[in-house]
Amino acid sequence: MKIVGGKHRGKKLGSFNNDDLRPTATRIKESIFNILTHGCENFFFHNTRVFDLFCGSGALGFEALSRGAKHSTFLDVSSRSLNLVKENAKAIGERENIKTLRIDLKSSTLLKRIVKYQVDLAFLDAPYNKNLTLPALVGLRDSLLLKKGAYLVVELSKGENLKLPEEYEIVNFRHYGSTSVLFLNYIV
């Protein structure tokens, strides 16, 4: 797995074999970042703060850092994933610009106590068909850590049904094989 754009373009990220870990395919990742760069009104990577939820190896958060994000916070319930994120940060020279949190997004109160800044962009790539995306969106909303107008990129199984809370608006969507990607705007 490699970073596809920005200052770290071509650098490899470590990964591990795990049936529960489903890294975003390179083609999908390229598309996501092209849409963020050219298709999301008033969005710029420069100096953004990012959440990478269900982060796995951290590929999406590191891609954002490579393209100019100021800071990425990686959240997962797996200490193994978070350790891999720390190793990847060290390998590409981004240790100072990341934070890792072992937390379940249903703990919005705890998240709000730990994180003292709002974010401009959040990636949510929950395990498919486990009904984790909606609780994560609600937890994120309830944490009050999204800036007004923040963008969220949500990956889902193509057949997965998601009823969005009213604070989120779909601004774009794409289908790639068995994966759907929603681009949301936080409108509160």
Describe the protein.
With 188 residues, the chain is α/β, with parallel strands linked by helices. The chain has one domain: Vaccinia Virus protein VP39 (Rossmann fold, 3-Layer(aba) Sandwich), CATH 3.40.50.150. The chain has helices spanning 26-39, 59-66, 79-92, 108-114, 133-143, and strands at residues 49-53, 71-76, 98-102, 119-124, 146-157, 168-176, 179-186. A seven-stranded mixed sheet has the order 3-2-1-4-5-7-6, with helices on both faces. Helix 4 (108-114) crosses helix 5 (133-143). The relative contact order is 0.17. The model has no long low-confidence stretch (mean pLDDT 91).
**CATH class division:** Alpha Beta
Output the CATH topology.
Answer: Rossmann fold
Radius of gyration: 15 Å
In CATH, the architecture is: 3-Layer(aba) Sandwich
CATH superfamily: Vaccinia Virus protein VP39
Ends distance: 36 Å
State the total count of DSSP E strands: 7
Strand content: 25-35%
Strands of the widest sheet, in order across it, are 3-2-1-4-5-7-6
- Count of distinct structural domains: 1
Mean pLDDT: 91
How many H/I helical runs?
5
What is the string of SSEs from the N terminus onward? HEHEHEHEHEEE
Ranges with pLDDT <50 over ≥5 residues?
none
Q: Give the helix/strand class.
A: alpha/beta
What share of the residues lie within helices? Answer: 25-40%
Q: How would the global form be characterised?
A: globular
